Amino acid sequence: MKDTIQGVERFDSPGKGRGLRVTKPFKVGELIFSCPAYSFVLSAKERGSYCEYCFNRKEGLARCGKCKKACYCNATCQRADWSMHKLECSSMVAYGPNWCPSETVRLVARILASMKTQKERNASEKLMLIGEMQTHVEDVDNARREVNESEIAGLHRFYSKHLDFPDHSALLALFSQVACNGFTVEDEELSHMGTAVYPDVALINHSCQPSVIVTFKGTTAEVRAVTPMKKMDEVMISYIDILYPTDDRNSRLRDSYYFTCDCQECKTQSKDKAKLKVRKRSDPYEPEVVSGMVRYARKKMGEFRAIKSEKTPSELLEMCVQSLDEMGTVFDDANVYMLHMMYQAMGVCLYLGDWDGAIHYGEKILKPYSVLYPAYSLNVSSMYLKLGRLYMGLEKRSRGLNALKKAMAIMEVAHGKDHQYMAELRKEIK
Fold first, then answer.
1. Where is each SET domain found (predicted)?
2. What is the DSSP string of 198-266?
3. Distances (CA, A) of 314 to 155, 159, 311, 345, 346
4. Segments of 226-295 assigned E as strands
5. Residue 344: which H helix or E strand, with range?
């Protein structure tokens, strides 16, 4: 923990190990602290849209003269990124279309390079801090272990020219650390931009009733209060999407982070009934009918993730529609499994350029989202943004402005009023 961060201290959180707490009150929307990335990598899919070094989004980025892939704001950004980009530049040219390390492999390569070249004396200590009590090598199942072994093979294949690797067990530990502590860097619509590691943010424990939210300004993480915080309150974020019912949330936490949450919401399960809402009828559904449809929904969600990259958009949309028709025989439209599949359908419609279809699903999603998510949820603001921009594109200005203003009200708390996204959104509204 950096000594320069005012108002926050590290402490031993009961039952959780290390954690962070505030040493003074914070208001909703107030910045608690910001944290530069120890290491970061821009998604290969976003090259050309964002600067490789500062993650600035702008038109007219300059491409690297050698690989023709990496893009930068200017020569200053390109020079600053060279120590990392040189790990990939010549390799991308040599392998051509066969250059295909995963984003995790790319991040691990940069972490190893940072450990070697970073001038600050505590570089290795910071890396150890990232994975403190969250390595869990011994807890990894066979499927995850196979993935890690494949990732290590990719690391050796694509980066052996520029890096000296630690032994195999150390690499396994490092990949496990990144899996537990890496952050997905997202834009204002929650689109994936890249992956990064933030040592100080990694100290924050999980709750399904988070007190703070993490957003990104370029490659820097910013932690802001989304509930009023008193002196000595613990800083809590959600590691997962909290839309889903208690069993689903804790299954995800066990699979990815190796613990079960015991927050007040998990103890009371107070929102589960609303999240699993069924259709009204005079003769209530038998419990086994509802539980059977829950199993069906979970199965379809897993199938959709598994085949997403293999099917055409039209096939994926058909799968969404069929799943919604089947679930709709029991579930209300506000049921979270219905919302999940509607969200997937909306994404496919956006990809296909079916704006009316996207609006149809977005409008059905928005009201339940506003009820089931916390007041300052990025999931809600991103939905307002998407719908607002769709309305404006279809010249439905009144609806568009209303949606954009509602997005801004949430984003001013989550991102801060001085964020670039706020400036861009104000221009859209004007």
1. 6-240
2. -TTGGGPEE-SS-SEEEEEETTEEEEEESS-B-TTPBPEE-SS-TTS-HHHHHHHHHHHHS----SHHH
3. 35, 38, 8, 10, 12
4. 236-237
5. helix 336-352
What is the Cα gyration radius of the chain? 22
The structure's pTM equals: 0.91
**Domains identified in the chain and CATH numbers:** 39-184 (no CATH), 276-429 (1.25.40.10)
Is the separation of the CB atoms in 218 and 55 below 8 Å? yes
| Long-range CB pairs of 281-289, under 8 A, 24+ apart, other chains included | 285/330, 289/330
The mean of the pLDDT values for the chain is: 92
Residues in the chain: 430
pLDDT for 230: 97
Element (H, E) at 268: helix 264-268
16, 261 contact by CB (below 8 A): no
* Residue entry with tokens 């490659």: 219
N-to-C CA span, the chain: 42
* Residue 121 pLDDT greater than 50, yes or no: no
Predicted confidence at residue 420, as pLDDT, reads: 94
CA dihedral of residues 112, 117, 118, 122 (deg, nearest 10): 70
The confidence score (pLDDT) of residue 8 equals 95
Whether residue 236 contacts residue 213, with contact meaning beta carbons closer than 8 Å, is answered with: no
Find, among 335, 341, 343, the residue nearest to 368 by Cα.
Answer: 335
Q: Are 134 and 174 in contact (CB under 8 A)?
A: no
- Sign of CA pseudo-dihedral 137, 138, 144, 145: positive
Q: What is the C-alpha to C-alpha distance for residues 54 and 196, in angstroms, rounded to an integer?
A: 12
Q: Is the four-CA dihedral 371, 376, 378, 383 of positive or negative sign?
A: positive
131 or 392: which carries more pLDDT confidence? 392
Pairing of strands 205-206, 236-237: parallel
- Kindly give the pairing relationship between strand 71-72 and strand 62-63: antiparallel
Q: Report the distance separating Cα 303 and Cα 246, nearest Å.
A: 21
**DSSP string for residues in 361-409:** HHHHHHHHHHHHS-TT-HHHHHHHHHHHHHHHHTT-HHHHHHHHHHHHH
CA–CA distance, 221 with 316 (Å, rounded to integer): 34
The answer for residues whose C-beta is within 8 angstroms of residue 78's C-beta and 6 or more apart is 53, 62, 64, 70, 72, 85
**Which pLDDT value is given to residue 1?**
53
Cβ proximity of 257 and 239 under 8 Å: yes
How far is 43 from 192, CA to CA, in rounded Å? Answer: 8
Q: How far is CA 210 from the centre of its chain?
A: 15
pLDDT tens digits along 146-195: 889 999 999 999 999 999 999 999 999 999 889 889 999 999 999 999 99
